[in-house]
Design brief:
alpha/beta; Alpha-Beta Plaits; 4 domains; five-stranded parallel sheet
């Protein structure tokens, strides 16, 4: 035994001369220590009702309940934690795991009441005396989190490696990276409601942690039959509400979805998903368009036993996923992997067949038991400013289509792109690559009405475009294209002050004293896409109802006024891939119910 151990007990004698502490009224005058774990407090405005506190409580002392004034919305369940102090042991794990930091403990610990029900309450909602108490237990910061605050970096090609080719930029997670990122998930499920397809996100992320790719694939295919595609180009709105993102970086949900799909060979899909030997029910469905909505509907209808035929106007399937998104974002072989599995279920595609030209919609109506139309937005919109009728003024959609088909397109030395959305970034980056290949340099400017912070394009698209030497100069409104001796000289623009008027209508206002000129030999317009529904003849239109911007009105099952015709995808909702997938899924069940009750 050390001499220190012998002497330590005697050190208490130094307290013998201290003034004793006497508390005359211990119930009303006995504050807890500054960090004492007393009764709960909760900032209801900050809380998102993720349920992490409820999940971690081993005593089942916390239940999420509805609270007046708080509604369910994206990123917020609308529920708030209720604490039962007959069960609570004040371990503070609920505070430590709180993803937003809204839940804390006061240092108040005395509470006298005769009614036991009073000891079950919703912190922050019942005006308790300690709600304004600043003392108590809070999650220590920094470096006191139960989950990683930084996402695992996704490896990608450097700008120098990618700015002259169409090779896929994103490399994908390794097993170690995917599992490390999956470990950050708290399985709250807030993301599910925000996903248009309501994918089982926490469950497939759990499958990654457990290295069970077959189970993960099953979860993906419950609501999304295009995981390779969606794992690359999904708009990932789920990540914007990720509860972990409130105090750190949101989970890389999209890349984790891609990881699962990348790990499983397509030859194993039918075995894993149990889709061998589907019995045909003798009924047929025609689908117009092989974009995400059409493919999704075809997949789920096939599983129900329907004989499905897709009519596609192009030589290959995929719609805007193939003909509107560059290969550096979405490689064609990954599109084919998803599509080939759907074809293996018995789906038939008639290529190079345009409805209204090669076969009429009325013929489909008469030949099939039901029809689903998901024809997408394939028509470009023009600014209609002076000069747009020049031969070297193009639509982004048309150019992206030709690039996909491998056709040679006009690539000028100086180009201006009008538009600030993802399609504008896609054509800007594609033309920048082609300029690099042809001239060894990039001279392309993308401009838009929106300011930098309001650009509709994904932030990473804008960042990557600039890394590839494109100039993004937002906040300008196109006025006219200058043409001299039959050749484009450039685009005249004015500073944009506002885009919409007080009633929310598109009515841009410009500063006539703040002008600019973007030199160019070629102009590309990318201000949105329109739908082509010329295949719907007047007699069929008379059965339909049309809403704002000419969109066909459908019910919750995507059934139109012509009961045999279901409509979904970008021409109804979106535009984005995940909404199309969700539309097709719901429409498939709508068609099934319609035909069973017909």
């Amino acid at each position: 035994m050390a001499i220190k151990d012998i002497l330590t007990p005697f050190t208490a004698w130094k307290k013998v001369f201290n003034e004793p502490v006497t508390i005359k009224d211990p119930f009303n005058d006995r504050p807890g220590a500054e960090r004492y774990r007393g009764f709960h407090k909760n900032e209801l405005q900050t809380c998102i009702g993720c349920g992490s506190c409820e999940e971690i409580c081993e005593n089942e002392a916390i239940d999420l309940v509805a609270v007046k004034g708080y509604e369910t919305k994206n990123g917020d369940s609308g529920l708030r934690p209720m604490v039962d102090y007959g069960r609570c042991c004040w371990c503070a794990l609920c505070v430590d795991v709180c993803t937003t930091g809204s839940l804390t403990l006061s240092n108040e610990y005395t509470w006298v009441a005769e009614n036991p029900d009073e000891f079950r309450f919703v912190p922050g909602a019942e005006n308790k005396a300690w709600d304004k108490n600043e003392l108590g237990w809070k999650k220590p910061v920094p470096n006191y989190e139960f989950y990683g605050q930084k996402r695992v970096k996704m490896e990608e090609l450097s700008p120098e490696e990618r700015d002259h080719s169409f090779i896929e930029i994103i490399k994908g997670y390794s097993k170690e990276q995917a599992q490390l990122e999956a470990d950050r998930c708290v399985e709250c499920g807030i993301c599910i409601a925000t996903c248009p397809a309501n994918m089982g996100i926490p469950e497939y992320i759990k499958a990654i942690r457990e290295d069970d790719m077959e189970h993960g694939l099953k979860i993906l295919y419950e609501t999304n039959p295009l995981p390779e595609i969606c794992g690359r180009i999904c708009t990932h709105k789920c990540e914007t509400v990720c509860s972990v993102g409130h105090r750190g970086e949101p989970l890389s949900i999209r890349w984790l979805k891609r990881y699962i799909a990348d790990q499983v060979e397509s030859a194993e899909y039918k075995r894993i998903l149990g889709t061998d030997g589907i019995e045909n029910n003798g009924k047929t469905v025609a689908i117009i368009g092989s974009g995400p909505a059409g493919l999704s509907a075809a997949h789920y209808l096939s599983l129900m036993g329907y004989k499905v035929t897709i009519y596609e106007q192009y030589a290959k399937a995929g719609g805007m996923m193939r003909y509107g998104i560059p290969e550096y974002r979405l490689p064609y072989d990954q599109i084919d992997k998803d599509i080939n599995y759907i074809l293996s279920l018995g789906v038939n595609i008639k290529y190079n067949t345009k409805i209204g030209k090669d076969i009429s919609l009325a013929e489909l109506r008469d030949k099939y038991d039901a029809v689903f139309a998901g024809t997408g937005l394939h028509l470009g919109r023009s600014t209609r400013i002076p000069g747009t009728d020049h031969e070297h003024v193009y639509q982004a959609i048309d150019l992206l289509n030709k690039i996909t088909e491998g056709k040679e397109i006009h690539v000028a030395e100086k180009i201006v792109v009008i538009g600030g959305g993802n399609v504008a970034m896609d054509i800007t980056r594609s033309l920048a690559r082609l300029q690099n290949q042809k001239y060894g340099k990039v001279q392309i400017i993308a401009t838009a009405l929106e300011s930098e912070e309001n650009l509709p394009a994904d932030v990473e698209e804008v960042i990557e475009a600039r890394e590839e030497k494109a100039i993004i100069n937002p906040g300008w409104g196109p006025q006219y294209i200058e043409i001299e001796n039959g050749k484009i000289k450039g685009l005249h623009v004015n500073k944009c002050l506002s885009i919409f008027d007080e009633e929310g209508r598109f009515n841009p206002k410009f500063d006539e004293n703040n002008k600019n000129f973007f030199e160019a030999d070629m102009i590309v317009e990318s201000i949105g896409q329109g739908m082509d529904i010329a295949y719907i003849t007047e007699d069929i239109k008379s059965e339909l109802e049309f809403g704002p911007r000419g969109r066909i009105v459908v019910d919750e099952n995507f059934q139109s006024g012509a009961k045999w015709l279901f409509v979904g995808g970008d021409i109804i909702q979106g535009p984005d891939v995940i909404h199309g997938i969700a539309n097709g899924h719901k429409a498939a069940y709508g068609i099934d119910n319609f035909l069973k009750n017909k």
